Amino acid sequence: MTIGIGGAGSKIAGKLDPQATLINVSDTELRKVPQAGRRIQAVVHAQHGQFRGSRKNPSIGHDAYLSVRRELEEMARGSVVFSSTGGGTGNGITSGLLQDLARRESIPESEKTSFALVLPYAPLEPAEYVRNTIEFLRGPLSEAIDSGNTGNIFLISNQ
């Protein structure tokens, strides 16, 4: 299964697999990708979050992860997840998934989730994206890799 999280992740997943499952906090963003097998809107508890998205704030995305946690953990087994590391939705929801994977005792090889992660291109994107990415790489991604509970990790430049 192919899963796209956030704006960038959903666009890539939708282009590669017309049956991909897309997850975002914004219905508007979900509708920007014409091809998808399934669309899931994660619930944001922050005021006006459903209409404004995560606004480059991974905390809002992480809060939304809680609304899709069980379903996403199940779907992600043996799947490929596409996400960005700099924004709010992709970074926040993917961070939650990675943290949960890192806490598990052991995951069989056939059920490990692979991740294709889009890194910001620093000269053209706001410094906030770069800061979010550094925290993502140092924290949730590093912990998940160290746990041995992820499949392959692909880092893709947004250049």
Report on this structure:
It is a single chain. The chain has a 6-stranded parallel beta sheet with strand order 3-2-1-4-5-6. By secondary structure, the protein is of the alpha/beta class. The protein has helices spanning 6-16, 27-31, 49-52, 58-76, 89-103, 127-147; strands at residues 2-5, 21-24, 38-41, 80-84, 113-119, 150-157. The protein has 6 helices and 6 strands, in the order E-H-E-H-E-H-H-E-H-E-H-E. Helix 4 crosses helix 5 (89-103). The chain starts with a strand and ends with a strand. Helix 6 (127-147) links the parallel strand 5 and strand 6 (150-157).
Question: What's the topology here?
Answer:
Elements: E1 2-5, H1 6-16, E2 21-24, H2 27-31, E3 38-41, H3 49-52, H4 58-76, E4 80-84, H5 89-103, E5 113-119, H6 127-147, E6 150-157
Parallel strand pairs: 1-2, 1-4, 2-3, 4-5, 5-6
Helix pairs in contact: 1-5, 4-5, 5-6
List keywords for this structure.
single chain; 159 residues; alpha/beta; 6-stranded parallel sheet; 6 helices; 20% strand
Which outline best applies?
globular
- Helix amount: 40-55%
Parts with pLDDT < 50 across at least 5 consecutive residues: none
H and E order: EHEHEHHEHEHE
Instruction: Return the structural class.
Output: alpha/beta
Task: Work out the strand percent.
Answer: 15-25%
Strand order of the largest sheet: 3-2-1-4-5-6
Q: What does the largest sheet look like?
A: 6 strands, parallel
